[in-house]
Amino acid sequence: MAALTRPTDGRMIAGVCAGLARRFGISANTMRVIFLVSCLLPGPQFLIYLALWLVLPSEDKAHGRAAAW
Predict the structure, then answer these.
(1) Second label for 33, Cα 20 to 30 Å away, from 3, 19, 20, 25?
(2) DSSP helix/strand/coil, 58
(3) pLDDT digit string, tens, across residues 25-68
């Protein structure tokens, strides 16, 4: 399984859905549809998306840290 990072390519807004899709081995468009459908249900989906945007490292920064070690 791939590390959970926001990729630098294939982003739409922040790369959260693309990163989750890469992690779970599905299409980024499929993950985006799942997210949009989940927003029709009650719950904190949008807040979770924002939190992941803040918490998940960008792919280029994650690789930069790994190279520094």
Answers:
(1) 3
(2) strand
(3) 999 999 999 999 999 999 999 999 999 999 999 888 766 655 55
Helix boundaries (H) for 1-69: 16-24, 28-38, 45-55, 59-68
**5 near 57, Cβ under 8 Å?**
yes
Closest to 3 (Cα-Cα) out of 17, 20, 23, 18: 23
Task: State the sign of the Cα–Cα–Cα–Cα dihedral 59, 8, 48, 54.
Answer: positive
Q: Is the pTM of this model over 0.85?
A: no
Q: How many residues does the chain have?
A: 69
Here the tokens at position 50 are: 């924002």
- Residue where the block lists tokens 């945007």: 53
